[in-house]
Write the structure tokens for this entry.
Amino acid sequence: MTDSYQSFLSSPHVAYKHTTYFDSYDHFLGQYRGNDITFVEIGVLDGGSLFMWRDFFGSKARIIGVDLNPAAKKWEEEGFEIFIGSQSDPDFWARFVDEVGPVDVVLDDGGHTYAQQIVTVEVLLPHVNDGGLVLVEDTHTSYMSGFGTPSQSFMEYVKQRVDAVNFRFGGFPKEKSETRFWSIEVVESMVGFRIRKGATARKSEPIFNIGSRFESKDYRLEDAGALKPVEEYFNFNAGHSKLTLRELILILQEIRKRDPGLARRMFEALK
Ligand SMILES: C[S@@+](CC[C@H](N)C(=O)[O-])C[C@H]1O[C@@H](n2cnc3c(N)ncnc32)[C@H](O)[C@@H]1O
């Protein structure tokens, strides 16, 4: 039984999680236990997770809940700080950070739409302390309908940010590089953005431990398989289309809504 699962069971009010999340909570959040941190959970619902986090992090942690539902205010009576507003509203977050100041850990268990998840990450990243974390959960919604435009899903955004992390490598254009966080870690249904300011700011350049050149020939291109297409080894796309039928239908419906003439011409061309 993991520590976070124990805290989940100990909560006196209903908390709603998934069985696979507790290993991930322990992994991402374990290092903050017992510390004097500011923890923000977006999505209060029946209040159970606030008590779960109080038990998990300990009494030194400042636990803040954010919800669109004004009824969540009642949990202030239990010693939690509650802010009412929408996570998709940058003005709400501006007022929030004005009042709260920088935070250490953000857990997004709110509405799970792409706009809500992306706005939350983009707006809060600059307000997370060094050593902190933004953890977005229920990221499987990126593969489901009803959470936004599939081509602009949260996981599509994450893939772009992964590219931007690698653009920190020296010699690549600086403007393409991601410098607000150090790493992105993906596990089932969750993505963690870790803030490590020193490591992120370090200049990326080649370095030798002794001298300034190597003596041996580098055999990289002597390898006959070095530049072979990877399909010759593995068929990664077997049985998978890049787009699901459901995603294709949603895209076509969106085109029909925005530009019915274009949709008609597309259907004509397909005949
Ligand atoms: C999945 S529940 C949270 C569950 C809770 N964290 C738990 O573990 O029991 C989602 C919550 O997010 C809130 N919510 C939905 N959209 C929101 C938004 N745009 N901004 C803030 N909260 C939102 C809902 O009112 C609901 O209480």
